[in-house]
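Structure first, sequence second, as always.
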């Protein structure tokens, strides 16, 4: 799955007020990088959305909502026919949420509150404030569930992750990748843990799952997706996908199927 990356020669994006409301987008549509003066929750009532910041990419299906604090540059990409819900969170509520981008599980009550906040564009300010307060309270009781693919700062680690972004199915060992990047296997293994908080195997599996989400949304079969994303058999892919995403590839594909 293509990643949104920063480029030093590009002008800084303009701060914008976080949009609020709902819309329907087709698979593959994007919202380019931008910044909000307010925080923003993004929820896909159907379909899926990838939110990318300088700290990596979060995938959110209907069982997750992404959070971007004020001032963080971010971009979005959509998979399947997505019913997207955008909720601007005013400053007085933002401090109650994490200071870094993240994603949360969506409980039935949280889902209804998010839908109520976005179903009407003319919602009264006092009702909006009360619903925002309910959303914040519900998020405070909900564990973070980030299908998160972090991005590196170390140049040696970036050389390795760039190779895997270009070909997530490559089965090259960390030692072999290290020779390309000019670092030992031990050094790279340490960098994966210190920068990402996860092993090389876990990071590569998450990368492959991110790519798999796009392939499945485009209509590829589970078997073909497993092979093109690096699994030798569908059963291993199904197990890894279900563990990270919270549903089987078949259920995910049915939910985002293009019609």
């Amino acid at each position: 799955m293509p990643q949104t990356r920063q480029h030093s020669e590009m002008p800084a994006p303009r701060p914008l007020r976080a949009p609020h409301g709902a819309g329907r987008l087709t698979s593959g549509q994007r919202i380019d990088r931008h910044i909000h003066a307010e925080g923003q929750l993004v929820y896909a009532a159907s379909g899926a959305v990838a939110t990318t910041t300088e700290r990596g990419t979060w995938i959110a299906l209907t069982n997750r909502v992404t959070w971007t604090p004020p001032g963080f540059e971010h971009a979005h990409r959509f998979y399947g026919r997505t019913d997207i819900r955008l909720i601007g969170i005013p400053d007085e509520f933002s401090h109650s949420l994490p200071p870094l981008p993240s994603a949360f599980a969506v409980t039935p009550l949280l889902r209804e509150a998010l839908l109520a906040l976005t179903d009407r564009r003319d919602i009264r300010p006092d009702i909006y404030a009360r619903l925002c307060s309910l959303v914040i309270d519900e998020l405070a009781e909900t564990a973070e569930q980030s299908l998160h693919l972090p991005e590196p700062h170390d140049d040696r680690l970036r050389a390795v992750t760039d190779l895997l972004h270009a070909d997530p199915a490559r089965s090259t060992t960390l030692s072999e990748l290290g020779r390309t990047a000019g670092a030992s296997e031990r050094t790279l293994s340490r960098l994966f843990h210190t920068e990402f908080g996860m092993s090389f195997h876990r990071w590569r599996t998450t990368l492959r799952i991110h790519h798999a989400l796009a392939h499945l949304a485009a209509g590829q079969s589970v078997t073909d997706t497993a092979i093109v994303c690096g699994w030798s058999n569908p059963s291993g892919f199904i197990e890894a996908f279900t563990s990270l995403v919270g549903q089987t590839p078949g259920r995910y594909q049915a939910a985002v199927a293009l019609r």
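Margin note: The longest helix spans residues 200-217.
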